[in-house]
Design brief:
2 domains, elongated, alpha/beta, single chain, five-stranded mixed β-sheet, 10 helices, Nucleotidyltransferase, domain 5, about 50% helix, 5 strands
C-alpha cells in the first residue's frame, strides 16, 4: 500500500522552514523575518500629499521662469464643436498685456451663456472675426508655454475655431493650472479609492491667495490664473 501525504505534512514542512529561517536570523544577530516585513510599506498619507504639493510648486516656479510663457483665457458661446470664442485675453508672466479683444461669432450667443459672462450679441456686433484675430493669436502662441485654468477646454476651443476657418493650429505647449492647483490644494483624491481629484473653480483658487475674481471676462481671468500660479510658486511645500 502506497503512503499518502496529508495536509499536515505540508504545514510541518512550512513550519520547519520558518524555524530554520528564524534560527539563521538569530545566528546573524538580525530580527526574524515576517510576512509584514516582506511587503513594501507605502509612505504615510501626509508624505504623499506633500510630495504632490511640492511637485505643483516646482511646476509653478519653473513655469514663471520659462522664457516664453503666456496665460490665456477665453469666453465662448457655449460648449461642444459648434461653440465659438467671443472673448480672448492673453498676458505674460509679469502681467504684460499681450492680447485683449472681443470676437464676433458666426452664430448668435445663447441667452443662457450670456448670463454667465455678461456678453451679448450687441457687445460683439462690431468686433473682429476669429480670422481677423488669428494672425496675432498664432504669433503669440506658437512656440510658447500656454497656461490656462482648465486648459483642455480653451485649447480645444482654439483648435476648433482654427479648424472651422481652415487655419493652421498654433503649435504650443498647453499646461493646465487647474490640475496643478488641485495637486497643490488637495493632493489626495476627494473620494479615496476612486482616484478622482478634487477640482477647484478659478474663483476659489484665487481666494486662497487673496486675489479678487476675474468676473468671467477673458483678460481678467487670464491674469487671475497667472496670479494663482505666482501664489503657488511662493508657497510652502508642507501642508
Amino acid at each position: 500500500m502506497t503512503e499518502t501525504t496529508g495536509p499536515t505534512d505540508g504545514f510541518e514542512a512550512w513550519l520547519a522552514r520558518r524555524q530554520q529561517e528564524r534560527a539563521a536570523a538569530a545566528t546573524a544577530g538580525q530580527p526574524p523575518p515576517s510576512r509584514r516585513e516582506r511587503r513594501p510599506v507605502p509612505p504615510p498619507r501626509s508624505e504623499q500629499m506633500n510630495e504632490r504639493r511640492r511637485d505643483a510648486i516646482s511646476w509653478a516656479a519653473e513655469t514663471l521662469a520659462w522664457e516664453r510663457v503666456v496665460f490665456l483665457d477665453t469666453e465662448t458661446t457655449g460648449f461642444g464643436p459648434r461653440a465659438e470664442i467671443i472673448d480672448i485675453g492673453i498676458v505674460g508672466a509679469d502681467g504684460t498685456l499681450l492680447l485683449d479683444t472681443l470676437i464676433r461669432p458666426e452664430a448668435p450667443i445663447p441667452a443662457s451663456t450670456s448670463r454667465v459672462h455678461g456678453l451679448y450679441d450687441d457687445d460683439v456686433a462690431g468686433a473682429p472675426s476669429w480670422a481677423d484675430v488669428y494672425p496675432e493669436v498664432h504669433r503669440i502662441l506658437t512656440g510658447a508655454r500656454v497656461v490656462v485654468y482648465n486648459a483642455p477646454f480653451d485649447s480645444g476651443m482654439v483648435t476648433t475655431n482654427c479648424q472651422r476657418n481652415g487655419l493652421v493650429i498654433p503649435s504650443a505647449q498647453w499646461h493646465c493650472a487647474m490640475r496643478k492647483y488641485s495637486d497643490f490644494a488637495s493632493p489626495a483624491p476627494s473620494r479615496p479609492g476612486r482616484g478622482q481629484p478634487r477640482w477647484y473653480k478659478l474663483d476659489a483658487a484665487a481666494a486662497a491667495f487673496g486675489v479678487a475674481p476675474g468676473g468671467h471676462r477673458a483678460l481678467a481671468d487670464a491674469d487671475v490664473c497667472r496670479r494663482v500660479v505666482v501664489g503657488m510658486a511662493g508657497s510652502s511645500p508642507v501642508v
